[in-house]
Amino acid sequence: MSRSLEVTQTQQLYQQLEEQQLHGQLEKQQLFESSYHLSSRSSVSKQAFSTHKSHKTSSHRVKTSVKKEKGQEVVKLSPIPKRAKRTYLAMDKDKEVIGYVVPVFRANHDVVRGLMETHEDEVTEEGINYVAMRNLFVREAREALEVRVEKKTRTKHVRESAERLEMDRTMEEWSEFRKKMNPDRLTHPPEFIVKPRGQTVWEGKTVRLHCTVAGWPKPRIAWYKNNVLIDAKAHPEKFTAESTYNMHSLEIKNCDFLDTAQYYVSALNVKGEASSAATVVVKRFQDGPEAGLFDPKPHGFCPEHGVTFQTTIIDKFDVAFGREGETLSLGCTVIIYPTVKKYQPEVVWYRNSVPLKLSKWVHTHWSGERAILTLTHLNKEDEGMYTLRVNTKSGFDTHSAYVFVRDADVEVEGVPVAPLDVRCHDVNKDYVVVTWKQPAVEGSSSILGYYIDRCEVGTHHWAQCNDAPVKYARFPVTGLVEGRSYVFRVRALNNEGVSRPSRISEAVVAMDPSDRVRLRAGPSAPWTGVIKFTEEDPTVGIVPGEPTDVFVTEATKSYVVLAWKPPVQRGHEGVMYYIEKCISGTDTWQRVNTGMPVKSPRFALFDLAEGKSYSFRVRCCNSAGVGEASESTREIVVGDKLDLPSPPVSPVATRNTDTSVVVFWGASKDVKQLVGYYIECSVVGTDVWMPCNNKPLKQTRFVCHGLTTGLNYVFRVKAVNAAGYSQSSANSDAVIVQAAISVPGEPTGVTLLEAVKDYMVVGWTAPENNGGADVRGYFVDYRSVKGSVFGKWHELNHKALTTTSYKAENLKENVFYQFQVRALNMAGVSKASPPSKALECKEWTITVPGPPVGLHVQEVRDTSAVVLWEPPVFSGRSPVNGYYLDIKEASAGEEGWKAVHEKTNKSKFMKVTGLKAGTSYVFRVRAQNLVGVGKSSAVLGPILAQTRPGTKEIYVDVDDDGVISMMFECSEMSANSEFVWSKNYQEITDTSRLTIDSKGGKSRAIFNNPSLEDLGTFSCVVTNTDGVSSSYTLTEEGLLRLLDISHEHKFPVIPFKSEMAMELLEKGRVRFWTQLEKFTSACQVEYVFNDVVIEEGKKYSMKFDKSTGIIEMFMDSLEVTDEGTFTFNLVDGKAKGTTSLVLIGDEFRELQKKSEFEHAEWVRKQGPHFVEYLDFSVTQECDVLLKCKIGNIRPETEIIWSKDSIEIAEDDEDAKKIEKKDCELTFNIGKISKQDAGFYEVFLRDDRGKDKSAFNLTDAGYQAVMNELFRVIANSSSEIRVTSTESGIVLSSVVTYYDQNLRVGWLHKDGKIAASERVKSGVTGEELWLKINEPTEKDKGKYTMDIFDGKDSVKRVLELTGKVWEDAFVEFQRLKAAAIAERNRARVVGGLPDVVAIQEGKSLNLTGNVWGDPLPEVSWTKNEKELSSDEHYKLKFEHGKFASITIAAVTTADSGKYALVVKNKYGTEAGEFTVSVYNPEEEESKEKKD
């Protein structure tokens, strides 16, 4: 019977109890799994779980291994693991950091910490009564745990199994009892029994949100508005939060628009957290349709600050155009009134109604006054409608404008532009779907497909994902590495090449979608800091089940994408998948991914046969094996399932502004997955199509901006989806880019002009904006006013008025009336003007004139404007005899009015100058008669002093026929615009003086007969425009100048660029020429000599080059008969011209000689000749060269050199100095001397002719050579250097070569230095020097060496002062001292031999001569030991010169090395000698032995 390891029955029961308890807790308890971990199977989770269990009881240790030893199995329990360190990073299974995960809600850390501490205290108090009971059961269980090993028969095993089942029932009852006694089973995380419900309320109402929350310990409740914690205590006037038992509520009082938000309630305790959301929408009641997100709304009262904030946006950004790669800024100035300290509005930027998020591409700035949005490195994704929204606590205000992003210039002509809007979808562990949008411009040919590139985040290496271009704007990318982040980009391809890459996509992480959802969701309430883990039963070793719901998500001719759901039975180690395919009509299944199973429940199949049908199925696999196959899909035919969109319905273009057109079109029919539309425009007649938008849009209306005013455009539209572009729609009808006609603006300034008993005359100012069409008339309404009661409006006239005044009759005397006026044009009737003030109908008794009417302004510029008006209707008791014009800045008060002029103005117009550019002004006029000055007119303005862009002025033109005219151009004309010319601001109706000719955007006023009658100011106004006008003042001086120009044009003269000139050519030929500046092809030339017309022949040749305007006449030579005047007469239509050249007297004779010389020179150059005659040069090495250049040489040409008429033969010494290189002859004299002087000649001759050249190297020639030599020597001199010697200081300079005739002078302090014993100058070799013996302080200063250079002199200067002098003088003293020391040091000057050989027994006497100053000390040494005088050695020193040594009866012991040593303060010296003593007898005995 086999031996087995068995746990006793008591142990089995205890383990079953613990497992049931653990499983029950895992099933019922909803534990919060930290958002910082991807899987409960991670190493961190396991350690933390083990740590958590080990703190409760040691019996919860996990079984880790079973080891067999001698037939027995030994159970080992894992040691208690250490607590895992909490990490704030999200990690995958490979422990690679994949990013941070931020919870949806966050709370203040102090608040969370307080909640945790409070909850822990409550748990401690509530659980203290259960601790003893729980430990009692645990202790009894541990005492019952015993392990023993025994043999067991099969019968016994069956019996024990039956007993075990009975025991299980008993233990279940015990387990239930223990659960009740365990406080961990009583506590549970928060749970919403009743969730808060979203509500929609009217503005001003109160809304209450309710919820019921269960949980133990009792959860703490927090309310949030748009993820921001609500502090009800800080804002009691707005919020009230209540909690009664488990019922919780939030009350929002006096709701306004800003209270519209997402409200969250969060419940939190130590066991976990939960949250729920409700949406509150606050609506504002109003008539008509509900306002949109950016529609302006009236501002309401803000009770928090006690004011109503008024928002005004000025300096608004307009439609903007940028180019890819550029930086674009949008900005507005925002004025918030009133100003509240420490309060700032909320400034939000939107693109296409979506709030912008800050990124490296988007930057915002709010200075407190100005809001700026900066888009760095523009891309087409940035195109769209941009909106600035300013939120205050009283409301909001907005401003919007479109931003267009044009494509960057392509590097290769004809390639497509970059795709846009690259996005990633359906991201899995190893798979992602990349989509993009096609560009607006395909290039010179259609796009063939796209390349997709990927790059791993953190690297810069881009890898191409597809080998062949894909046609669809959607592509599945496989082969990603799980846990790594990637970015993608797309490039388009056509026949010309590949486009630039698109902007990169946002980074995505290759990971399981469920993990991503958990990471993105985070906790459902503010993070508590409590991390709990859960662990499931291991299922390793189980083969996974079959996948379900296998279906085809995408099918194209390039690829097919499969998707499925993972199996229910898959274990915890994860599963992978094999995909199989089957061709329709067969039963053979072929595995697609044989090499590597895929991890994601998505797979893209490539290389399928187009047109064939396939079925697909999927199998799961893990370490236990491969599971069963799923159900197969239905048969799928490989091919494109998405059709190209149909063309949009023909577009309709309508006028909008001067630079934009509105285009409408019908949507494409039966289109699937529409991406949007692209609009293109073309100027009529060009067939060049330009994109209007670079980002597709889904609306069927678009405003095309950036068009040229006045041009005729047609438009077309094409749709686009993932399959590609549709055919372009039919072209729209042509439309001229002009401002659209609209109803006129409101008239202004309704005033009373005259009043009688039963009628009143009212006047008004015409609307500033006529809507693009002439104002055809006005309608006047009136109503009676009694105190504060206003009557109903009634029409006064049923037929439109053509004037800006009206006589209202049949009124009641002493009754007050109000009047309002509406303007009419072809588009309709305008809104009514603001009502006039209440006017009393009673007869005027005033005697001064009434107010002038009809004020308007023309020719507004930066610094000037012209104000015009009409006389008052009521002139008073005498006629009006003048006017006064007043002006003030629009922002100034009533005290800011001032008169423009002091004297009355008789005219009904005035030009106001001296305005400030960019400042707004208002004007008024007062009329005067003999009685006095009347009331002011209605105020005109405000008028902004600013020259409009593109403003043109009237200019005067004189045509070729001498006709004088004034020209004016306008690029903003509409179909109904006209040019109106005036003189002195009165419309010209008499055509006897001026003829008006207007065509298109140009108008010409032609003077019929210009005279002094035409003096004055001429102006031109273009109707139905935004005030386009200009004027020109014709003065008497200007008229006379124009008449002179007119005469020149009537009787023109051909202009000459240059008058007639003459030049000599080779052979002595003479060329006469001139050049015309302006002429036509019909221009003719007549050549005249002395009033006689000459023609081309043997003597003369002529040429007129009409491409350059050059007229030429050639003569071979000048003869005596050619003296006189040469003339060119020109005729070009009615224009004439004449130019002449006079050649007479000495000038002619000199020219004739030059001509003969040139002819002779030409003859000479036909044979061998000198191009450059013999001359000299001096090289940098000071060698003198005689050289010349020769030309037209042949091999047989003789070249002969001679000196002093003696030919230099080939064997002469001087022949070695001759050298010929190419066409240059050289005679190298070398270093010149008097012997080289002479007359040098060179001869050239052959059968074609001869030539010679000579150089006189004597007298003046020799001196010229020497002067050049001196120049080279002088310039070769080096800078002066300083050298110190024992005798003094030497100044020297080195030259390349020195000639004894070269003059060199030395100067000290600009004075010539006289030669003396102390200061000498001279030359040694090539060194020029100046020696200063025994220098003193007087020798300091500036030294100059003056070298003659043949003409002037070359100077070299040295400042012998300062450090230069000090260094030189110190060195001199050092060398001098050294020399003195050398001269006076103690020395042995002679008398001693080197070796002395002496016979033994004889006496040796040696005397050495000694010198030194002072007298040296004398000593003798033997073998470096000093000797002293005794009987054997007698040492003497006599007369201070002689030192002697006497050795009496020398012996062999006296042999050695001796030295006479002398020493004084300057040094020591030793005279050494060797003494050798020999014995003759010993020498003889040695010889005999040898």
How do you describe this structure in short?
The chain is mainly beta and 1490 residues long.
Distance between the termini: 118 Å
The helical percent reads 10-25%
Instruction: Describe the main β-sheet briefly.
Output: 6 strands, antiparallel
- Strand percentage lies at 35-45%
Mean pLDDT: 81
Low-pLDDT runs? 1-15, 21-113, 115-147, 521-539
Name the overall outline.
extended
- Helix tally equals 11
Query: What is the SS-derived class?
Result: mainly beta
Q: What is the tally of beta strands?
A: 104
Task: Tell me the radius of gyration.
Answer: 58 Å
Structure characterization notes:
- With 1490 residues, this protein is mainly beta.
- 13% of the residues lie in helices and 42% in strands.
- The protein has eleven helices and 104 strands.
- The strands form 26 sheets. Strands 49, 50, 51, 53, 54 and 55 form a six-stranded antiparallel sheet that branches. Strands 6-13-12-8-9 form a five-stranded mixed sheet. Strands 15-22-21-17-18 form a five-stranded mixed sheet, with no helix packed on it.
- Strand 58 and strand 59 (898-899) form a beta hairpin.
- The longest helix is centred in the N-terminal third of the chain and has 35 residues, at 109-143.
- 26% of the residues are buried.
Task: Break the fold down into its secondary structure elements and pairings.
Elements: H1 9-28, H2 43-54, E1 63-69, E2 72-77, E3 90-91, E4 97-99, H3 109-143, H4 154-181, H5 183-186, E5 188-194, E6 199-202, E7 207-216, E8 220-225, E9 228-229, E10 239-244, E11 247-252, E12 261-269, E13 272-283, E14 310-314, E15 320-323, E16 328-337, E17 346-351, E18 354-355, E19 362-366, E20 370-375, E21 384-392, E22 395-406, E23 420-425, E24 431-437, E25 449-456, E26 462-464, E27 474-478, E28 485-494, E29 497-498, E30 508-509, H6 513-521, E31 548-555, E32 559-565, E33 576-583, E34 590-591, E35 602-606, E36 613-622, E37 625-629, E38 636-637, E39 649-657, E40 660-666, E41 674-683, E42 690-691, E43 701-704, E44 712-721, E45 724-725, E46 735-736, E47 748-755, E48 760-765, E49 777-786, E50 789-790, E51 794-795, E52 805-808, E53 816-825, E54 828-829, E55 839-840, E56 853-858, E57 864-870, E58 882-889, E59 898-899, E60 909-913, E61 920-928, E62 933-936, E63 940-944, E64 955-958, E65 964-969, E66 979-983, E67 986-987, E68 994-999, E69 1002-1007, E70 1016-1022, E71 1029-1034, H7 1036-1050, E72 1056-1064, E73 1070-1076, ...
Helix pairs in contact: 1-4
